[in-house]
Amino acid sequence: MSLIKIEQKHNVNLAPFTTIKIGGVAEHFFIAHTSDDLGKIIEECSGQFYLLGAGSNLLISDSFITRPVIKLGEKFCYTKYDGELLEAGAATPVSSVINYTLRRSLSGLEGFAGIPATVGGLVAMNASAFGSDVSSSLVKLQVMDYNANLKVLEREEIKFDYRQSSVKNSMVILRAWFGLNPEADLRSKIDSFLKTRYATQDFEFPSCGCIFKNPPSNAAGFLIESCGLKGLRCNDARVSLKHANFIVNLGKARYQDVDSLIQTVKEKVYNTHQIKLLEEIERWT
Hints:
285 residues, alpha+beta, Uridine Diphospho-n-acetylenolpyruvylglucosamine Reductase, domain 2, Uridine Diphospho-n-acetylenolpyruvylglucosamine Reductase, domain 3, Uridine Diphospho-n-acetylenolpyruvylglucosamine Reductase, domain 1, five-stranded antiparallel sheet, 29% strand
């Protein structure tokens, strides 16, 4: 790599950057502190790179990752409100945004409280929770495409589907603007959502979150549990005892352990229900 004045690291262990604590070593690891930095890195990588956010919904191979990894720096981590729109940098943790909206009594994003993601990741995958998806509050995005072109996209220019958007894996989100509404009793709503999330999802052990998308007919977790797969283990990877759509790392699980469980779950659910489960997670190999 020939980049100068760009923060670049070599042979970086990726496991600590993921919520499941699994992953190999990145040969090239870049931190972009400005949009100019990002553009130079993307050009140097010829548009072939992995973008790292909070590392949730991400399963990384234990192998040597030769494709460059890019992470947005601290200047993309902020939240501000101009009286009309809330603006958040793509690297901002969702928890920080929720706390900001709580202090200002701004409603619209509270259903995402407790999700270990960044704003960029939340929008790119069109996250949904408690009957609402993030695109419902989105007004516009600033993005950079894989040719290093910077642009602003209005909500109407972006296609959103279930766990998908037209910007995912084709553009890097830099910042997002949301239209929110005043809410006097926001604290009680957030507390209720958090209580439900912690009661039903497994936060005791590291995980990727939900492994599979919910098919139209039934929740993936219900289908997996109906096959008697809760607690199924492969070494230190286990189908969660609390939420069957989670696979947790009991300590020393590896990529192949999780992959083995995923393949077993797919096979069992298909044989029992004739339903093909589709993965929600992203994989790096």
